[in-house]
Amino acid sequence: MKTTQPTTVTTYSITLIILFIGQEEATFSNDLDNPESALYIQYENSICDSLTNVYDSSDIILCKVTRFSQGSIIADIELTFPGNTVTANDLETVLADSIEDNMLPGTDISVDADAIEVIECKCVNNNNNVFDLIY
Q: Which pTM does this prediction carry?
């Protein structure tokens, strides 16, 4: 009988506080409660495109916004990498270093660079690329 070891990945939860979008102060909209709304998808795509460019996109398995919440706009993001290729400290440093004048690279989104939070949680690929979080 042939058995397959589960693939280990590392997922990081990143929290960004969005202050401005373009020239407008970031204001939470109820559309951001719905992951299928056009606004949610637009913001998620902008954030994930920026993060995959900041980090080596070939190393990123998944980027997704898990939710937006009020407080200007707070974005909770999950980035998943294979194995243990990076650390939370590495990710926080690279992201902070890439932000100039509080602008998320390649976007018109201004964030609070001093409030970036990165937390690690491990995941195991149990079947068909379904990842269970291990906290």
A: 0.83
